[in-house]
Amino acid sequence: MPAFDLDAELAAERQHLTESRAALARMRGRAEALYFTGDQVAGDAYTAEQLGRHMARRVLELADDPTTPLFFGRLEFEEAKYHVGRRHVTDDSGEPMVLDWRAPLSRSFYRASVRDPQGVSTRRRFGFVKGVLTSFEDEHLDRGEELGTSSRILTAEIERPRVGPMRDIVATIQPEQDELVRADLADSICVQGAPGTGKTAVGLHRAAFLLYLHRERLRRSGVLIVGPNTAFLGYISAVLPALGEVEVKQATVDDLVARLPVRATDPEKSTNIKHDVRMSEVLRKALWRKIAKPSQPITVSDGSYRWRIDTEPLRRIVDEARREGLPYGVGRDRVLARVVGLLQRQSEYRTGNSPGEPWLRRMAKVAPVKEFLETVWPAVTPEALVMEVLLDPADDLLTAEEQEAIRWSKAPKTVKSAKFSAADLVLIDEAAGLLERETSFGHVVVDEAQDLSPMQARAIARRSEHGSLTLLGDLAQGTAPWAAADWRDTLAHLGKPDASVVPLTIGFRVPAAVVELANRLLPALRVDVPEAVSLRRDGDLSIVPVAEHADLDAETLVEVTAALEHEGSVALIAADTAVDRLRAHLTAAGIESATPDDVDTEARVFVVPASVAKGLEYDHVVVHEPADIVAAEQRGLNRLYVVLTRAVSRLSVVHQKPLPEALTTAAA
Ligand SMILES: Nc1ncnc2c1ncn2[C@@H]1O[C@H](COP(=O)(O)OP(=O)(O)OP(=O)(O)O)[C@@H](O)[C@H]1O
């Protein structure tokens, strides 16, 4: 057997990369040419626009980022070799040069093992530095070689310093993650994973996978990603475009229900009641109470004719529409259509002619019909219904005290002038869902789902009624007052009670020493979740006690300055109330700092309020006074758990007050 020439092999792979990039450029060139000639070939303006949009998207999808590798792996089967990469690249004759990572064949790249080689004799992983192919690593599965998580290339990827927004993980998706990424479109799944186990990554890659497999269907119905706040959405926003997916909607739950501006704030108690699932029933009852039993016939003068519908058939129409279980607004339209239908029949009978559309429209608007409808099935707007309930929340589902807590003391002059809070907007969305059907997305990914209130979950349920869900979260990171203690409850509110709950346990972010510290908090959080096992043996943890009379902020600055000696991002995470002060200290010390939502900043230091740290990660995290973070809110210990698990490489905990007791008790 000839000796394996490593250099020649590397040179051949580089050559293939160069040729693949050139082929991709030609594919893009062709798409661009089609885009520019689209106008001339399309028969009419509409087709031209459709075609133009399609081609513009195609051009975007074929964008090549020279700093990311076009392929990252190679599969060798007995009869053929395939390179696996971010998207399909074909040569001029249509032969594949790079297989999309989502193609069925590519699956073996993630799943083949010595036990189940799936026909793969050798799996090759490539190492890259800024888009330049620098190394490769082979696993000869047919000779019993398998690296698993000890792959050097995987380790380098996990341990690389974090700069800028989140990146995709296509090159290193792990088998337990791949199982979730490639789950069927019809399957709703809930992923319970400790911090840094790749939940967000899995959710985003699943969206990309489903879009690849069900392109036309999902393009029509849409894919939605729901995240906790705009800083988080900014952080993840580059992942899907890097995978060629440019048309996924990303929103916070607040964005979804933002039918009106927020112009009021609620006290905590009333917020909590408004997010309680009983409010859905309170609203439903208040709405359907509006329907009255018809007590008078309808008589309509129509030229020389007079039409009459008796009370009895009117009652039947209303009863029937009620029983059909339709949204209120749809039911109202039905009642109207049926009343007009009866008038039409009378007219046909008497005149012998079938009246036309204009007549039907006129009958739907004549005063006796309008009055009838307003009396028995009145028109309602979502905001008017919510306002009504808040002005008079009498309902035996709520205690007298709860009713008082949400009651508006003064009626606004008009619905338009009413000032609604963020929680009211969730109620308004619920009311809108009672009135009309919401359009459903084909697939919805919800991140940090442990914090969804029952009413927020229902808002998402309305948007995924005919689609499936990927729910990602960690019960231990629940910080909202209504945070879930059991995924079954959330899944029931989301309308997917049978979704399977799957754990992820291998941690890719947080070093073992830091995980060990954070895990000490778990028993105090009273949730039943599996602990993470960190893949990272590197990393550093330092607890920095500050003497009683010393300056805590100054000591914190020393830690930040020391952190800047290392490569990567630095986050100073503190109780929300300390953030402005710390930012001012940094500025005074000549250290440029940015806010967490500023993903394009040149600054290396971010000052992050504890309340927005969720989902984010930084190489070095300096935590300022944990006791204040814990004291700031009801679920402060959960918040601290979130804060401690943001560190990729190093964590410094600077404290003057005693550390929370749970943290100082070593794990059993
Ligand atoms: N298979 C993988 N290969 C390389 N890196 C990975 C892999 N899986 C996850 N990571 C990286 O680990 C980090 C944590 O991933 P991610 O943010 O998805 O975790 P998470 O479970 O959502 O965490 P949290 O609960 O703290 O929000 C990210 O930097 C991600 O890119």
From TrEMBL:
Gene Ontology cellular component annotations, sorted alphabetically: cytosol
Gene3D superfamilies assigned: P-loop containing nucleotide triphosphate hydrolases
GO molecular function, one term: DNA binding
Keywords: ATP-binding, Helicase, Hydrolase, Nucleotide-binding
Any one biological process term the GO annotation gives: recombinational repair
KW ATP-binding (keyword) present: yes
Superkingdom per UniProt: Bacteria
Keyword ATP-binding in annotation: yes
Domain annotation UvrD-like helicase ATP-binding: ranges: 172-511
InterPro entries associated with the record: DNA_helicase_UvrD/REP, P-loop_NTPase, UvrD-like_ATP-bd
Annotated ATP binding sites: 193-200
Entry protein name: DNA helicase
Species name: Paractinoplanes ferrugineus
Lineage start: Bacteria, Bacillati, Actinomycetota, Actinomycetes, Micromonosporales
